Amino acid sequence: MPSQPTFAPHSSSTLRLPRRGPLLDTKSHIVVVGAGAFGGWTALWLLRAGFKVTLVDAWGPGNSRASSGDETRVIRSTYGDNETYFDLNVRALELWREHQHRWNKSLFFNTGVLWFCYEESPSMIEATEPFMAKHQLSYQYISVKEAAKLYPHIHTKDLHHLVLDPEGGYLKARESCQAVQEALVRGGGQYKMALVKPEAIEKGRLEAVILSDGSTLEADAFVFACGSWLGRLFPEVLGDIITCTKQEAYYLGVPASHTSLFDTMPVWIDLDGQDFYYGIPGNAYRGFKVGVDKRGELFDPTHGERISNPEVLAKARAFMAHRFPALQNAPLVESRVCPYENSPDGNFILDTHPEADNCWFLGGGSGHGYKHGPALGELAAEIITGKRDLENLFRIR
Questions:
Q1: 185-214 pLDDT, tens per residue?
Q2: Whole-prediction pTM value?
């Protein structure tokens, strides 16, 4: 387990020869296991490409056990010097806007993302500047003096400056997963709620999966996008690669005198280099959300209790009282646990089982995957159907 979050996944990778999966005929049946951000969007893009698609999930899209659960997720383009994720996020932003218009459903809230910077030139921000310019985007640099006027409820005296990314904001998490699943079914895809167990791989192929109702589901290809459960379904391949950690989020009740200040401010991220607290204000008047991005304790996504660790909560509250003094005595009105499915380097995983080229793994969200869902699903659909090479950055190391 990494000692701190991989906020900017490593862009370097060993040089590997290009590889492409088998080209699938559009009459092929593809089963996607997991209706979260990765699996749901991939299933939808596969359906749109003309394939027969069955999406399966044990507890439903956006359920409380899933990494894609809870109410909201941050969407940001800032990734340091990693252009792959920057470009993926630019495409994702385009697709989020397109789909919320298509479905007449508010999913993306363009509040901006406010970065709290302790150093003069934090690499997370500065290394992204060339990519911002390439896409005709720009940050807004805010001095501590200016911040005191713009955000009087934020303590900024220990910061060097603040940076606003006006393109970012937050997404509806649980609701978006459900919207994708509903679109899949409306479009003619099949959805099943069941626990899945893969059959044994024989002669280089996976022929079927066994469902918890005792039935068998056969297909030409299988995509396992089941988050923290990937390592449990395939322990021989992913058991030491995918780890699940307990990540906590809290909703604090803001004082009535400060509601407008807190509820209308941007999403924020604290670049302290250690805890990486972040927050999502306002959403549907649920309270002021603060998330703990520093990797937590190992966690069982199936049986683990979604109860806050008192020490983690106390530390988060101390930070909030410092950064947002008006919240010093704010009541905890709600709390959530989000299981992170971490890869060793923070990069996503999109690769085949080493013994079966029709069995695909899609995961490794590592706490930053949700925002990329529509763009990653679009990319995954092309790779899984053999239309383009695998991405080296996402191959199993």
A1: 999 999 999 999 999 999 999 999 999 999
A2: 0.96
At a CB cut-off of 8 Å and minimum separation 6, what does 67 contact?
Answer: 36, 37, 227, 228, 301, 338, 339, 340, 341, 365, 369, 370
Task: Give me the residues paired with residue 30 across strands.
Answer: 53, 221
Cα distance between residue 321 and residue 314, in whole Å: 11
| Main-chain dihedrals φ then ψ at residue 168, nearest 5 degrees | -90, -165
Q: How far apart are CA 367 and CA 308, in angstroms?
A: 18
CA distance 159 to 152: 14
In this structure, what token pair is assigned to residue 281?
């204000």
Angle value at C-alpha 95, between 269 and 242, nearest 5 degrees: 60
Fold of 29-69+174-242+345-394: FAD/NAD(P)-binding domain (3.50.50)
Would you state the structure tokens that stand for residue 110, as one six-digit string?
Answer: 């363009």
Per-domain residue ranges of the chain: 29-69+174-242+345-394, 113-166+243-341
Q: How far apart are CA 374 and CA 211, in angstroms?
A: 27
Amino acid at 8: A
310-346 tens-digit pLDDT? 999 999 999 999 999 999 999 999 999 999 999 999 9
